[in-house]
Amino acid sequence: MSRLRLLILAALILACALPSSLTPTPVDSVTAPAPTAALAPTVPPATDAPPPTESSAPTETSAPLPTLVPPPDPQCCALAPLVSGLRRPTLITHAGDDRLFIIEQPGRIRIVAGGALREEPFLDIERIVGSNANEQGLLGLAFHPNYAANGNFFVNYTDRRGGTVVARYTVSADPDHADPVSAEILLTIEQPFRNHNGGGIVFGPDGLLYIGMGDGGDAGDPYGNGQNPNVLLGKMLRLNVNEPGARPEIWAMGLRNPWRFSFDRLSGDLFVGDVGQGEWEEIDVVRAPLPAAGPNFGWNILEGTHRYSTFGDAAGLAGPAAEYSHAEGGCSVTGGFVYRGAALPALNGVYFYGDYCSGFIWSLVPNESGGWDSNLFMQTGLNISSFGEDGEGELYVVDHGGAVYKLAGQ
Fold first, then answer.
1. How confident is the model at residue 207 (pLDDT cuts 50, 70, 90)?
2. Where are the domains of the chain?
3. pLDDT above 90: residue 345
């Protein structure tokens, strides 16, 4: 999710121009602009902030080329309604069983079981969540890889003062209700503004909890957080939740607002949707095995592949796998998932992502030259706040207006 001042206006304008039907209309594929070569920054002087861990400096790594897959046929699929009547849903995920868990931004987690939305929430923390601004609220949810045994799950929210909180909770004796007094705060980060809070938390293939942090907000990264290795804003953090008292480490830097990111459940590759400033949205990819120190994604020296700041050296920055301009397709990228389900075998290995304002969904596949090809997959008319997958790898799309859809064949 991006800029508070522009987001709602853009959504209202685009809503009039796009199809109003909740069932999306497949569209002809169009090739997205190919990303240009990317280059690594000189870092601004350090500020009085906690020192970074030794893994905060990017290093060069090599990885095998991804398996080539053809672009999907847009006529293959449609979005089938799953549930509606939600309050500003921001995420759908699973706990390793056949249930689905949906975040409502004001501070509740709802359960979908047997295709039905349960009335009683799994967890309700509205009283401690601050959600007055469009990019504040309950934003992230991740279940421990060993959740079936330890019952631990993690949330990312903004508190009543607007700061970021990452906390651990435990399920109660009733598997459909969390223990609301089990909260253990693992991380707090002050936020200078009311936007660019990041929000995503995801367990990586290494068992660590990855935490996407925005640059702190306003516009243009006024404090230079993205390129400052001594602050946690504008970074991808990771945390060993199994180690008591562990501190988060900075794994990658140069991010503006990595609202949604995911790992390919088969390959372990990391895909990040980083929301742009005023012109360019981008998808970043880090190939598995993940390096000990992640890349510098370039903000605010670059926006996508384009120079943004007049300061900073662009040599060595990690360029995006795909980008699109606001003139082409919206205003705020929503990162998605690589499809690994069984119901739509032709989509195996295809990464899907979308735009919050336009409702467009694109596919992204590797090409023979070692780059990536992006094609428009469908236009939905939805405010796409998130994608999600169930325990079987089937894909879902979250409409911030209050509904969730499942990608299905037609």
1. very high
2. 4-85+129-137+191-409
3. yes
* Structure-block tokens of residue 231: 């602050």
Given a cut of 60, whether residue 41 has pLDDT beyond it is no
Q: How many CB atoms lie within 10 A of CB 136?
A: 26
Distance from the first to the final alpha carbon of the chain? 30
- Plot region of 378 (φ>0 → left; ψ -120 to 50 → alpha; else → beta): beta
303 pairs with which residues across the strands?
306
How far apart (Å, rounded) are the C-alpha atoms in residues 233 and 50?
Answer: 12
The domain 4-85+129-137+191-409 is classified under which CATH number: 2.120.10, 3.30.2320, 2.60.40, 3.40.50? 2.120.10
More confident residue, 369 or 13: 369
Paired residues of 178 in beta bridges: 171
C-alpha closest to that of 167 among 128, 134, 197, 223: 128
Which residues, other chains included, contact 178 with Cβ-Cβ below 8 Å and sequence gap of 6+? 109, 122, 123, 153, 169, 170, 171, 172
pTM of the model as a whole: 0.84
- What is the Cα–Cα distance from 300 to 198, expressed in whole angstroms? 16
Whether omega before 24 lies within 30 degrees of 0, making that bond cis, reads no
- The identity of residue 54, as a single letter, is E
